Every structure is written in C-alpha cells, then in structure tokens.
Amino acid sequence: MKKKIAVLFSGRGSNMLALHEATKNPSYPAEIVMTVTDRPDAQGIEKAQALGLPCRMLDATKFDDTQSFESNLHHILVTSQVEYICLAGFMRILSSWFVEKWKGKIVNIHPSLLPNFIGLKTHERALKEKVLEHGCSVHFVTPDLDKGPIIGQAKLNIENENCVKRVAERVLEAEHIIYPHALSLVASGLLSVDNTQASFMISPTV
Ligand code: GRF
C-alpha cells in the first residue's frame, strides 16, 4: 500500500511538483492525497490544481491563533487519512503540540547543509561566510527548529560562486533530486525518525 502524503506549501510549490513527478512511478511507495497552503496568494495553488491535486486553503490570517489553525490542519489531515506530511516551503513554524501529534511523520526540506545555516537567508549567509560547500537537507521535523534527524543531503561546491540567485537555483535543483528520494526511504520504511542509518549524502552535478 502506498503511503498517503500531504504536501504543505506557502509559495512557489516547485518541491511539490518534484514530489508529484516521482509519485507517477508505479513503484514509488507514496502518493500525494492532498496539498494544503496557508497563503491565498501562493503560486503553488495553480500548480496543484493543474496537476489535479486537491488543494485545501487554510488562510492563516483567518484564525485567532496558532492553536486553532493547527487544530483545523490536524483535523483536515486526519480526515483525509494522511500518513506523512511533507513540508515544502511551508513558512510557518509548527508548534510542539502539532509536531508531537505527528511524531516521526513530518519531513521538511531545508536549503542548507544542516546543521549549518538553520533558519532563513541560507544562501546569503553561506556566501558571506565564504563556505566551500553548501546544499540542502531533508530531515524529520521535531520541536527544535531545523534540528530533527537528517534523512538525506546534497552538497554542492560553491567556492567559485558569488551570486545568491545562481546558488539558489543550483540548490533548488538539488532539492528536487533529494526530496523524492528521501521521501521514498521514509515511506518504504527503510528509514525512520529513530533509525536514520540509511540516510544519504549526494554531490549532484547541478
Ligand atoms: C525551498 O528552497 C525549500 O528548501 C524551502 O523553501 C523553498 C520552497 O520552494 N524550505 P518551493 O516552494 O518548493 O519552490
């Protein structure tokens, strides 16, 4: 049985597209049963609709507080029998309450080689610090922001880079490679939040 996935996004939705593309393979162990966005202006909405993926709008500004937003989100996910949540540019920090309810079931893509550059503006910071390698990580979500066990990473040599846009493009391309692979490891049970021995590191030519 394929695992039922919800993809949560706030913006462009390119990782959602990459995940969807992977799920077209009949042997892929997961299927996207729904997408959810917290922003009515998210570009990803049109993309989800074009793919025929159900897209639920949970406009975060219409809720009194985080608890009521997350209770609604939880209810929607449970009702759709979602088993794993993929955060794909979802720009909200989920509370410990929500993360505990979905323990080991939420994965996120982050545009840096964690544990380096937790938080925002990762490419700017990587260039400013003149690091030689930068990249992206897929990890389990725990209450500690960007600190959950790592599922997979892609590293890129950026020693000759000086343009944030160019680095962002290369990292995004790498994200589209590692996210589907990381999700397949989780959905097939080869890797879990308590056992990440099968985690991977690749150096894609992007
Ligand atoms: C990606 O860079 C991801 O790492 C970060 O947000 C961005 C989302 O991009 N968490 P997209 O919406 O998937 O195109």
Write the layout of secondary structure elements.
Elements: E1 3-9, H1 14-23, E2 30-37, H2 44-51, E3 55-57, H3 66-79, E4 84-87, H4 96-101, E5 106-110, H5 122-128, E6 133-140, E7 150-157, H6 164-187, E8 200-202
Parallel strand pairs: 1-2, 1-4, 2-3, 4-5, 7-8
Antiparallel strand pairs: 5-6, 6-7
Helix pairs in contact: 1-2, 1-6
The chain binds 5-O-phosphono-beta-D-ribofuranosylamine.
List of distinct ligands in this structure: 5-O-phosphono-beta-D-ribofuranosylamine
Q: How many strands?
A: 8
- The helix fraction, in percent, is 25-40%
Principal-axis shape equals globular
Assembly type of the chains comes to: single chain
Q: What's the tally of helices?
A: 6
Secondary-structure element order, N to C: EHEHEHEHEHEEHE
What value does the average pLDDT take? 97
Low-pLDDT segments: none
> What proportion strand?
15-25%
Quick synopsis:
The chain has 206 residues and is an alpha/beta fold. The chain contains six helices and eight strands.
